[in-house]
Amino acid sequence: MKQTAWLLAGNAALAAVYVLAGQFGLSIASIHASASAVWPPTGIALAALLIWGWRLWPGVFVGALAVNLGVPGAALAAPGIALGNTLEAVVGALLVRRYAGGCRAFERTLTFFRFVFFGAFVSTMLSPATGVTTLCLTGSANWDQYGAIWLTWWLGDMTSNLTIAPMLVIWLTQGLPRLDLRRSGEAAGVLAAIALVGSFLFLGPGAYAGQTCHALTYLAIPPLLWAGFRFGERGAVAGVLLTAALALRGTLTDRGPFIAASPNESLLFLQAFVGTIAITSLALALAASERRKAEAQMRLQAVALESAANAIIITDRDGRIEWVNDAFGRLTGYRADEALGRSPRFLNSGRHPREFFRGMWDTVLSGRVWHGEVVNRRKDGTLYTEEMTVTPVLNGRGERTHFIAIKQDVTARKQAEQALREVREDLAQSNARLEDLVSERTAKLRESVAELEHFSYSIVHDLRAPLRAIQGYGAIIAERAGGILPPESREYLARMQTAVIRMDQLIIDALSFSKAVLGELPLRPVDIETLLRGMLQSYPEFEQARADIVLKGDFPAVLGNEAGLTQCFSNLLNNAVKFVKPGTRPRILIRTERRDAFVRVWVEDNGIGIPPEGLRRIFGMFQRMHGAEYEGTGIGLALVRKVMERMGGRIGVESEPDRGSRFWIELPAADTEGGPGVCQTGAAGGAVAPESSRAAAIGP
Ligand code: ADP
Asked: How far is 632 from 81, CA to CA, in rounded Å?
């Protein structure tokens, strides 16, 4: 709704302006009432359609129709003429949009020349072509006048598009220039100069026909150049319009250099002049502002290059340095004047073979970019490494004119890389040395272990031999002289025999312990249920007749050593069967519990339990909590703890006197990923919940 209203208003306003401007144009028409050499509406219509779009074409049509209906004797031709005027504006706007950038046609010389061709020269032929033909067809004009009227009409429209249209587009789209006091003064000066020269040429006392020298007309140009150079497009169009107005006023009042045989002819001369100064002034103004912009941009680029962190060298096509930036000085230590005119070869370090530079030249001479690392020498003789890119610069004809080399100092990085390499090499060497040392020590250790093992075996053997002798002779004495010995001596003999058995057990246990500490314990998945059931069947002390031993629930496989585990369970079960009140039948429950990646196996008994102070020590060597009524050496649990540790597991106990004991061992589950290594570190001790009884029980 609102848009339609605006559109209607816009069209109406355009039509009204068109009519006013048209009436002015027709008021000075002389060759034909409908054809004026000065026709402002064309420029107004083109500018309006360029700025606000082709939807304003009805305004053009209505305006043109209204103007032409008012021309006496040509009313019949009015629709045709209006159609031509409209077509001219619409096609002109389309062509300018398509080829000259629309409203931006007056920002660059190239687009302005395209505007001149399409917007002023070509599109304006449509109006006279339609208009004059219609006039002749409707009888308003004679065919023999066709050419003359056509030319007048065309020239009027063209000049209008060269002066009025740029003026409107530029001033309406670019707005007023911001002028300070000094610039305003200069602007006033330019206008005054244009007005003065124009008045002198076209209106002055000497301007009456025949008196002004025609050749002086060119005097109009310098002030226009001033306007164009100093105030750009806006200055140029304003100056041209002012000059055109003065020249028109003079010509209409029979003054100035354009007065010819007929008023129409005078106006045609005038228009040729106006068109020429319009094109010249605007083109010059645009060229000047383009140059200004390019210069500003170049200044910016120069600052950017100058202040770039990387060193930049520009050489001519023979490789002589033409320019270097500040960073060049910082990188090489040479001042610009020491480098200019020389070949960059003076930086050579001698570190690269000839072929290296030949390769570089081959690349850039074939028009490609060269990139690589170069070691060069500074003025102070030190070396530095740079990453360099050399780019050949070609001119419009494809010839090499310059080379640009951009150099980045990578010395620090290179040094760091070198240091890193050296450290790595050192490390590798130390590693190798360390490995040698380790394997040497391991070999020695193995030797010692083997010796120790041998030693302990022979000790055990040597110790057990006399024991067996004592036991054997004891048995012979008991058998042969048992009857005659007094009861006291028989008692001593029996005690001696018991001591010998204990001693023998001690020696066997000590040997097992040393084996657990020194021997190999390779880890494999172990099915504990099968292992336990096998033990229950083959160990006489675990027979059903002596104890109730029950396995309850699932028994997931664990990662351990079968022999080690057998030793552990045998000790735990032996203790559970042994440490019960006399007359009590041992009841033992074995069950498992899954604890994340670990399996905990519980051995719970109904025995005499362990006093709290004993829990701390129980896994130490030779620690016994109960008296001589219970046999033992105090080595068993120390052995279990050692074996568990070596398999990457743990052991613990919960117990109270007379309430039985619950021993547990924990090992990695066999189905856990990560293998034994992970299990060993995971089982280092801290993972157990800090319940006092349990924590206290994890060994001394
Ligand atoms: P040993 O059984 O040869 O004495 P151990 O190292 O196996 O040696 O056990 C150390 C001590 O821990 C035992 O002497 C005993 O006092 C106590 N103990 C071990 N197991 C149990 C148990 N199941 N019930 C009560 N006390 C036990």
From this structure: 134
Contact 681, 632 (CB under 8 A): no
Are the C-beta atoms of residues 254 and 25 closer than 8 Å to each other?
A: no
pLDDT tens-digit readout, 514-536:
777 777 788 999 999 999 998 88
Angle between helix axes 221-252 and 263-307 (nearest 10 degrees) is 160
To the nearest 10°, report the CA torsion of 39, 40, 46, 47.
170
Cβ–ligand 1 distance for 608 under 6 Å, the answer: yes
Contact 636, 508 (CB under 8 A): no
Question: Going by CA atoms, what residue is nearest to atom 8 of ligand 1?
Answer: 634
Q: Compute the mean pLDDT over every residue in the chain, rounded to the nearest whole number.
A: 87
* Token pair belonging to 117: 């061709």
- Hunting for tokens 């001479």 — which residue is that? 365
CB of 624 closer than 6 angstroms to any ligand 1 atom: yes
Residues 6+ apart with CB under 8 A from 493: 474, 477, 478, 485
Nearest CA to ligand 1 atom 20: 575
pLDDT in tens, 191-220: 999 999 999 888 876 665 555 567 788 889
Name the closest-CA residue to atom 2, ligand 1: 632
pTM above 0.70, yes or no: no
Query: Shortest CA distance to 45 belongs to which of 126, 129, 139, 101?
Result: 126
Q: Is residue 523 packed enough to be buried (19+ CB in 10 Å), middle (13-18) or exposed (0-12)?
A: buried
Asked whether 625 lines ligand 1 (CB < 6 A), one says yes
Query: Per-residue confidence at 496, pLDDT binned at 50, 70, 90?
Result: confident
Dist. CA 565–CA 491, nearest whole Å: 40
The alpha carbon of 624 and the centre of ligand 1 are apart by a number of angstroms equal to 6
In short, whether 104's Cβ falls inside 6 Å of ligand 1 is no
Which residue pairs from 449-458 have beta carbons closer than 8 angstroms and sit at least 24 positions apart in sequence? 449/518, 452/514, 452/518, 453/514, 453/518, 456/511, 456/514, 457/511
Better-scored residue on pLDDT, 694 or 574: 574
Does the structure show a pLDDT above 70 at 675? no
Q: Which atom of ligand 1 is nearest to the CA of 623?
A: 10
| Residues comprising the chain, all counted | 700
Share of the chain above pLDDT 90, in %: 57
